[in-house]
Amino acid sequence: MKLYVSVDMEGITGLVDHTHVDSNKHNYERSRIIMTDEANHVVTTAFEQKWKEVVVNDSHSKMNNLLIERLHPDTQLITGDVKPFSMVQGLDDTYDGAIFVGYHARASLKGVMSHSMIFGVRNMYINDVAVGELGFNAFVAGYFDVPVLMVAGDDGAAIEAEKLIPNVTTAVVKESISRSAAKSLTPVKAGQLLREKTAFALKNKETVKPLTPPDRPMLGIEFANYGQAEWANLMPGTEIVPGTTIVRFQAKNILEAYQAMLVMTELAMRTTFC
């Protein structure tokens, strides 16, 4: 049995604002430790449940946050940037299940540090389905027939996951008060919860079906301002929906849509105030 674990940072226990997730800020180093330990609770439980191989993908910012020396020795870690498939790098049809750790709500929804890839995105769509990082990544897993068994993060991420993926297990380590405040478990209690929920999710994996993406999906990204849409529209094959800041791209499959999203958001980040 082979497990894929994608680990983001905004949904980790006790982390509530940019000082926790920005490598230049004072809270970042202690946050890395909590993040790594949280991933390790999931990984260690999987090995205890006799899963033979666990691959962890560092999925936050420059994707070099996890402290490899604190992980279970049998873990394989995908780390660093640039990755062609970012938060789901290395995921393919050889896996029997996936778990998302440290995840957060999508942009425009209530949740701790809620966003979708960059802060300039208001909404992302696959056809008419609004998705964030969680949903997009789950669609990629579904392309490879891999079910997302568990999502751990704040209550906003749990609500989003449960709407998208029937029977998914969720582990809520903090409850949003605002976008930069939460009522959080301590790392010790969160660790206990993660171990219990991971064990349950792995034992009940047959109850969860992959989130199958549509054939030839239409990707839509609504940006915060028109300048960002203009930058994203520089990618060949895109179009701006007249009268909006939505940029659309007709993809051959969800993998092409995912990489198009990465290119469009990277371009949009070049927008300046004036």
TrEMBL record:
- One Pfam annotation, family name? Peptidase_M55
What name has this protein been given in UniProt?
A: M55 family metallopeptidase
Q: Which organism is it from?
A: Neobacillus driksii
Q: Which SUPFAM superfamilies match?
A: Dipeptide transport protein
Signal sequence, renumbered to the chain: none
